[in-house]
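Chain A, query sequence.
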Amino acid sequence: MKITRICLLEVNKNEEVSHLNDLMRTWCTAMRFSFNRLVEGEKSGDVIKIVQEKFRLNKRYAEDAVLQAQIVITSQIELLPIHIEGVQAKIQKTFRKIDDYQTGKKRPKKISLDICLTGLKARLDKLQKKESELLKHLEQGTIPKVIFGGRKKFYDRMENKISQKKWKEIRANTLYSRGDKSKKGNLNTRIVLDDIENQFYLEIANPLLKKEGKKNSPRLRFKVYIPDKYFKEIVNIIMANDFKKTSTEKVMEEYQAYSIEIKRKGKKYYVHITYDLETFGCKLKWKDKITSDFVAGIDVNIDKIAVTVLNKQGRFLKSRTFYCHEMEYVNSNRRTNIAGETAKEVIDYLLQWNVGAIVLESLKFKQDHDTDKRFNRLVQSFAKNKMQKAIISRGLKLGFKIKQVNPAYTSVIGRFKYSKMYGLSVHEAASFVIGRRGLDFEEKVPKELVNLLRSLVKPMLIQTLGSMEESEKKSKNSKQRRKFIAIMIKNIDNFKENHSWKLWNVIHKTLLLKNQELQLKEV
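Chain A, predicted structure.
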């Protein structure tokens, strides 16, 4: 399992810092140059040779620059369908909003109806234009424009909010060097231990200072401060961990490969050390069976993690919620810390119960954002994904088996089937359903709910169809609504022939549980 640890580099105002900044600027320029040449269709081997000669970098740095450029291109190709899907979802949502305001179903609270519709139509035009551009890239096999340094900072520079010097610093703040076990872990940027000072240093090869006739590049040297909690782990990575004999009986040291990325943020320099961490757990595929006696289902939300422990027969044992409200509003770095701390609490709790397997939701990055910034921040999946990754990483390290399942209707099933039965919150009930789904249990709809759908929900749906006005029926949104109501009625009548999820969908759309009492929703 790949893992990245972040350490701090001590830099003083001396000549070596200036040399490091020059090297970072040159490498970033080489990476952008490589990106443009690769987009134009040149071969990576040819680009490496050009970069090596043009920017006076050694072959290793040149290869790393081209490699990072290739990664950017690959990621843009993979993200293109996701961006298209996200824009199309936003277009559909904007259409629905316009239709709701025009038919009188909704009314703007703070502004007039004309201003509201004008703004929504302008948003729609902007989204449709963006959609056509992305679809054109998909058809032609190209990628959208990439702004190195960030789109927001680029527009800040265009509006003269930041200086040209600041903009150049933002675009020249990285240096990357990949690992190689045959080169003592890393050739260009290497962490070494000074036995006299008992201090770790980062040695950085700088080919820009190489003199003619010299074979090796001079090295810059900076102190590295490794956090205490990662100290032993990183020491084991950078020190020789094995010895082997060659065919000539010569003893050779073996090192573990580790990649290093230096990032400058303001006046601080951070060292990102990436390496393979030995794990004792494993990830299960959805077809694999869980054989552990105790299983934990985990429902991850942006502000809380609900954990339910159950046995392999699917019976409820214990449930607990871990709160992390700061995740709603803190910055990215603080979120990473909170995710790690909360994951540690969760795993320690599961170890007390001798849990052998963890079941989580399989998250998908689907952008269905609204115009409300706070709402977007709460529903976006990146914070949840960060929390999940922290749990998975720690779980694999300590020997847990990890299984991810489809999250469809877990909250609905938990709310209407198990919440009252076990006295659980909605999220704890959802985590119980997630755990049972990992054990391959099917959640059938209780008879009392089926009877309620037939006796109460179905007549309400039929009445809703009959009460729709003729003017309302003509709108595009209302036609879709009528069609959806008809499908729900059909699913109630034929629930035995269909998958149970179709009936759970009807329950989700038509019923509301308030104070453990069922109420009808407006459809």
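Residues 59-103 form the longest helix (45 residues). The chain has four domains: 2-8+176-276, 34-168, 282-438, 447-520.
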